[in-house]
Specification:
heterodimer; A: about 260 residues; alpha/beta; 6-stranded mixed sheet; 9 helices; about 15% strand; B: about 425 residues; mainly alpha; about 85% helix; about 0% strand
């Protein structure tokens, strides 16, 4: 089994997840594809660099002409779950970059809420040179979590921040600070302490980088490791959780099939 | 007198912090100070008019305050604010970062040049005034401000009834919104699946490229050329489809926002507050229509009350409009520039309000305004205001009519 698997991998014979099942179950495939999604929201104030970040994460390139995001822009990152181990599997992670600001009109907010359905992870982006953007992250996370329609959704009251609610939160969070290069050396420690407090509040890991420089996320750096761990956590919560839902049995069967055939 | 100025300054400061800059970080306190100063002195001018009418304070002290106020306001509006606008605009442009001050001064001189040229085509001055006299400056500020005021009033006169009167609100049901949202999500799903294919194809190409680097020989090279070509052609096709779909998703998003805001307006109109404003809307629409057709007030004292109402509502309306405008177009980069532009508009608007108010004030009170502001051709301003008001109102009617007509057709096509 393992030998076959290794052979398949070196041939570059990786199939996209939707095409795993043979042709005669085409309809089943299309239904399955909608269940296979791993959706991660990228939230933050306008101008912090979410679009640049998403572009860097998905295309491994720096975004040349950033412009305002109207509505929501999606991009896809291929992630190897548990890379390097025998259980390695490839997943598509959808990064939904939702534009706007926390102070938007309520019509904008209610339209934005459409994108917050069945979210599996949230990346909170803030600008290290702008304190307000960090403070607004509390409101962003509340806005997104309030709307989450999963059965174990967090019930938040009144928009007030409460740390216990984050402790019960089933959705993994990641904190990313951008424009790291624009902070002068003297102020770095002060900024880093501030973000450390923030990551404690959100019970999330934090990464500080500059979206115009790919070396911050180069393979082997601690940032890349944190990112990979976050995505692994998201996938784990999504597929391998002990959630007693009717989907679980189905998922288990899928897992068994994958492990034996070892298609990626 | 000065306490009230400090009060206004404080109010302007608060307004800035709480409303305008709610979501941004104030890094340049200069901007905040300038904005508050402009606001403070503008409000003081209105206060002085009221004092004039009420007869509070002695006439000489009123005169002194008028002059002082006027000098300060002109200084701010013509020297300080444009200079800072130029400075911040230049700071935003990366290329010119090095010599910011120099470029800011250049911008300011260009502004002054155009500002001066503005006076030539208008018959505002008699030639016996000197170059840097206060009349020259005021007259130009007045022209700009009056134009602005007339444009805004014309648009407001038409837009106010349109927004608040329920007659014009299109009927939006929840079903419409849900249908649009569903379409939006479907479009997003299509984008996602295409992007997955692109990503996977790219990954395969990359890995195949790696494998092929190991293959040597003639055939290996040929194979690599043909396979990658078809791969990349495929990719660019899918990419084009993705671009089109993304454009569609943006449009759908904006339409949904539009429908949501209409729905909220409908709900608002059913509440008590909404009904009150609806009534006001009818009242003001009649008033505005009347104003369009008749430009003289018939009774001096009624006009005084109206002066008071106009002052209060115009300040409030202006602040609200500026806030909405600011939210709509600002970002963390341009927020400073926009606030300064708004301060400039606000200052000019208030100065020209004073000029125009002379028209509405009873005769006995006009004297001090005339005395302080020198010999400007006031009639010119009144006529200019009326002309621009009419033009603006008519073009707003046309514009809103077209927008209203297009919308139902757009939704029927869904």
């Amino acid at each position: 089994m393992c030998a076959v698997a290794m052979h398949a991998r070196t041939e570059g014979n990786k199939f996209p997840r939707g095409d795993i099942f043979p042709q005669n179950t085409q309809t089943l495939t299309s239904n399955m594809a909608s269940l296979d999604r791993v959706k991660v929201l990228v939230l933050g104030d306008s101008g912090v660099g979410k679009s640049s970040l998403v572009h860097l994460l998905c295309q491994n390139q720096v975004l040349g002409n950033p412009s305002w995001t109207v509505g929501c822009s999606v991009d896809v990152r291929i992630h190897d779950y548990k890379e390097g181990t025998p259980e390695e599997k490839t997943f598509y992670i959808e990064l939904w970059d939702v534009g706007g600001s926390v102070g938007s009109a309520s019509s904008l907010k209610s339209t934005r809420a459409v994108f917050y359905n069945s979210v599996n992870g949230i990346i909170l982006v803030h600008d290290l040179t702008n304190k307000k953007s960090s403070q607004n992250l509390y409101r962003w996370s509340l806005e997104a979590l309030n709307r989450d329609s999963s059965p174990t959704g967090v019930i938040v009251s009144n928009g007030d921040y409460d740390r216990e609610q984050f402790a019960e939160n089933p959705v993994p969070l990641l904190l990313i600070g951008t424009k790291f290069d624009q902070i002068p050396e003297s102020k770095r420690s002060e900024v880093l302490t501030r973000t450390a407090f923030l990551s404690e509040d959100f019970l999330a890991e934090e990464i500080n980088l500059d979206c115009t420089n790919p070396r911050y996320l180069a393979a082997g750096t601690s940032n890349a490791v944190k990112l990979s761990r976050f995505f692994d956590k998201v996938i784990e919560k999504r597929y391998f959780t002990r959630d007693p839902s009717p989907m679980a049995a189905f998922t288990d069967r899928k897992r068994f099939n994958f492990k034996s055939l070892h298609y990626d | 007198m000065f306490t009230s100025q400090v009060l206004f300054f404080g109010f302007g400061w608060l307004f800035f912090m709480r409303q305008l800059f709610k979501d941004y970080e104030v890094r340049q306190y200069v901007v905040q100070v300038v904005f508050s100063v402009t606001f403070a002195f503008s409000c003081t001018m209105f206060e002085l008019i009221i004092f004039e009418i009420l007869g509070a304070l002695s006439s000489s002290s009123r005169y002194f305050h008028w002059k002082l106020n006027l000098y300060v306001i002109l200084l701010v509006l013509i020297f300080v604010v444009p200079f800072y606008i130029g400075y911040f605009v230049v700071s935003n442009i990366r290329l010119l970062q090095r010599q910011r001050l120099l470029f800011a001064c250049m911008v300011w001189f260009t502004f002054m040049y155009f500002f001066w040229k503005l006076g030539d085509p208008f018959p505002i001055l008699s030639p016996k005034h000197g170059i840097l006299s206060i009349e020259q400056l005021i007259s130009r500020v007045g022209v700009i401000g009056v134009t602005l005021m007339a444009l805004l009033s014309g648009f407001g006169a038409v837009n106010c009834p349109y927004t608040y009167m329920s007659y014009f609100l299109r009927n939006v049901t929840d079903g419409d919104i849900l249908a649009l949202e569903r379409r939006l999500l479907q479009t997003m799903d299509m984008i996602v699946s295409k992007k997955k294919r692109i990503a996977m194809t790219r990954r395969q190409m990359y890995q195949r490229g790696e494998d092929q680097n190991k293959q040597t020989g003639f055939w290996g090279m040929i194979k690599s050329v043909t396979s990658t070509q078809s791969g990349s052609e495929n990719l660019s096709l899918i990419q084009q489809e993705v671009d089109a779909l993304e454009e569609l998703s943006r449009q759908l998003f904006l339409e949904t926002v539009d429908l949501q805001s209409t729905k909220e307006r409908i709900e608002y109109s059913k509440t008590f507050q909404g009904k009150y404003f609806n009534f006001l809307g009818y009242f003001f629409s009649i008033y505005c229509v009347w104003k369009i057709f008749m430009v003289k007030f018939w009774s001096q004292h009624i006009s005084f009350i109206l002066v008071g109402i106009i002052i209060v509502t115009s300040i409030r309306g202006l602040l609200i409009t500026l806030t909405k405008f600011f939210y709509a177009i600002s970002s963390s980069k341009s927020s400073n520039v926009i606030v300064l532009v708004l301060a400039q508009i606000m200052g000019m608007y208030f100065v020209s309000s004073v000029l125009l108010m002379r028209m509405s004030m009873p005769l006995e009170y006009r004297s001090i305004v005339t005395e302080v502001l020198g010999e400007l051709q006031f009639n010119f301003y009144h006529r200019w205001f009326d002309v621009i008001f009419l033009v603006s109102a008519l073009s707003s009617i046309l514009f809103l009519y077209l927008a209203h007509k297009q919308a139902p057709e757009k939704h029927m096509a869904l």
